[in-house]
Structures are given as C-alpha cells and as structure tokens.
Design brief:
With 290 residues, the chain is an alpha/beta fold. It contains twelve helices and ten strands. An eight-stranded parallel β-barrel has the order 1-2-3-4-5-6-7-8, surrounded by seven helices. The chain starts with 9 loop residues before the first strand and ends with a helix.
C-alpha cells in the first residue's frame, strides 16, 4: 500500500460564490479547501461561482492546502462547462458528484483530459448505485485518487434516518474504505450537519477514524480543530509504531515474523501498519511546520 503523500484530515467546503469565505479559507487550519459549485450555490449563481472558483485557483495563496473544485454533475446544465473551466484552471483535484458507476468515472476522466497531470479526480460516493459498484468504481482506470462519502445524499436516496451512530450507513462506509484501500485511494468521511453540537462532531470524527478514513469533509470552520485532532495519530501510537519499525529493522531480528515490542506482540503486518501511521504523522508534522 503506497504511503500517503499529504494529510487530508479536514476538507472544508466553501461556496465558490462567496469571495469572503474563500479568502478566509486561505488562513484556516484545514488540509483541503473545496470550492463548491454544487450544493452550496443557487442555480442563478452557478455561472458566477464557476468564474470565481477559477479566479481563486489562479490567485493562489492557499499555502500547503490542497484546492479542490466540486463541479455540478455532467447531467446538469452546468456540468460540462464546470469541467471545462476546472480542467483549464488546474486545481489539485476536481470533485465529481452523484457517481453511480465506473462509466461515470470514465466520463469525468474524459472531460478532464486537457487538465494538467497534477489535477486529480475525486468522486462523491452518495448513491446506492455507487455503493453497490464501489469496487469497480475504485478500480476504474483514470486519474481518480480519492473517494468522498456523501451521507446526506445517500440518506435522501435510500430513505434512511441519520442516527447519532450512523448505523444505517456503516456498511456503506466500511465498503468505501475497503475499496479505497484496495486501490490506493484516499478516503474521506462525510460532513456533520449539526454545526453547534461539537460533542456529536467529536464522536463521528472518532468513528470515522476508527473506520479507517483519512479525514472528513466539513461545512463550518468551527469543526476544524476537533476534526484535525481526531485524524491525527496519537503521540503514544506514533511512539509505539516507531518502536515496532526499529525492532523489525534491527539486525538481530532479521527474518523474524513476530516480536515482543514494549510488552505487546508485533507481527510483520503490524510493521506495515506502523509504517503507514508514521508516514501520516510525519506528513502532518511537515505540513503544519510549513
């Protein structure tokens, strides 16, 4: 499993049509800024928001943060023009909504054929069809590099209640993480709707981290600190992981498949897990130092 190149603990949606919000995003403690042309923008503001997103990417100033444009679906009146503008702008990624099949991935990939190589494709996982085809979607040959849960839309499509523990969606969440890991994609959890319920936010962030998500999409800057903490490996985990790596790398342990490290059993699979966790921690530390 390739190690992550950069942290994606917190991905903050910002309406591209709100220049003050976009300017604020340049100084917030998020790992990813998503300039939204879809849900956060009214129909009569779509074309202006598209121009604003392109201008924001051109202006830069986002520092270490990845910049992603969420476009409208190709099935909408704005999707094709959104994709053409985003391809020309060259953000870090383009986030495609309402994905249902590998054929959808192929269509968005073709629409981005003129984009620079660094511009990746991210896919929203927010339909029942996407969940049922998630393995094939993740495996589709393309510039796809991330899967993003859209639990609000998924709840709407299946008629499920959004319970505090998100029980109706846990199977979908697990399948999405597994597909992402099987195909070396980043995987982000969906948003938390209750802006002021920070205790509930912390619980779902911890749940997402336990499921294996790399981070979480957010709708409000007040959620950033809790989210970043939840998806940052704990110091004790990092310390033990470094000890596991050192133990297996020691010459006297060459060829051994299992070791006792600080009173705990460590097998080779734990070394692989330790390497990934340390890489995440180092990437976070490097990003925050910048």
């Amino acid at each position: 499993m390739p190690l992550p190149a950069r942290p994606r603990r917190s991905a903050l949606y910002m309406p591209a049509s709100n220049p003050r919000a976009v300017e604020k995003a340049r100084s917030l403690a998020c790992d990813v800024v998503i300039l939204d042309l879809e849900d956060a923008v009214l129909p009569d503001a779509k074309e202006g928001a598209r121009a604003d997103a392109v201008a924001a990417v051109a202006a830069g100033g986002f520092g270490r943060r990845e910049v992603v444009i969420r476009v409208n679906a190709l099935s909408t009146p704005w999707g094709e023009a959104d994709l053409a503008a985003a391809a020309a702008a060259g953000p870090d990624a383009v986030l495609a909504p309402k994905i249902r099949s590998p054929q959808d991935i192929a269509a968005y990939d073709r629409a981005l054929s003129a984009a620079p190589p660094h511009t990746r494709l991210w896919a929203m996982v927010e339909t029942p069809q996407a969940i049922l085809a998630i393995g094939a979607i993740a495996a589709a040959p393309s510039r796809l590099s991330a899967l993003v849960m859209g639990i609000n839309d998924l709840a709407k499509e299946v008629g499920a209640r959004q319970t505090p523990g998100r029980e109706p969606f846990q199977a979908a969440m697990a399948l999405t993480v597994m597909a992402g890991r099987a195909h070396d994609l980043a995987v982000l959890d969906g948003v938390h709707n209750e802006i002021d319920d920070l205790a509930a936010l912390e619980a779902v962030c911890r749940q997402g981290a336990d499921f294996g998500f790399d981070g979480k999409t957010l709708i409000h800057p007040s959620h950033l600190a809790i989210c970043n903490t939840a998806f940052t490996p704990a110091a004790a985990e990092v310390s033990w992981s470094r000890a596991v790596i050192a133990a297996f790398d020691a010459p006297e342990n060459a060829g051994k498949g299992a070791l006792r490290v600080e009173g705990r059993l460590a097998e080779l699979l734990h070394r692989d897990q330790a390497a990934r966790l340390v890489a995440v921690a180092d990437a976070i530390a490097a990003a925050e130092a910048r």
